[in-house]
Amino acid sequence: MNRPTLTTERLVLTPVDLADLEDLQALWADADFTRHITGRPMTTEEVWFRLLRDLGQWGVRGYGSWTIRLVEGGAYVGNVSILDHRRLIDPPIDDPELGWGLAPAFQGRGFAKEALEAALAWADAHLRAARTLCMISPDNLASVRLAERVGYRPYRRTTYRDEPVQLFERPRGATGRELSANWAQADRTGPAVVRR
Description:
Blueprint: E1 6-7, E2 11-15, H1 21-28, H2 31-34, H3 44-61, E3 65-70, E4 76-83, E5 97-102, H4 111-126, E6 131-137, H5 141-149, E7 153-160, E8 163-171, H6 176-180, E9 193-194
Antiparallel strand pairs: 1-2, 2-3, 3-4, 4-5, 6-8, 6-9, 7-8
Helix pairs in contact: 1-3
């Protein structure tokens, strides 16, 4: 199984590993970080099972989660993932789903866009899927703007776990600039965040 390391100008994205557990537990215990994703901090048990799920995706699907660290100094920044969640949602999500999350101290500095672009370039080169998806809920303008900047556009409103969400899609190889004219009439339902 190929678990690639991706490198950008400022970041190193390594496949999630058991050694990341302590950083993940700190991140998911942060109420500011989790408020737009799970709505509450996660327990160490929940983080452990999340890590096991993320580790398993690489072996089962051939894609998964990357830990994001700074090139200089190695500080833990967050993660970006391409996963098969098998969500109980209508319509079903049958394509790889992109998700991301950065520690609050690293938000607003362009790191998320840099990491997403690296993960999407890898997906475009290595996955057979014609598109990737992300599920976004109406709470966080920054996340919907970021999704659009990397080429995602809304295609369906629905609910997930009794909460309203917007599904976004990105055709393989698309960038935000290329799609902006084509999606000018897209149904925008408001601000959003990536839900995992």
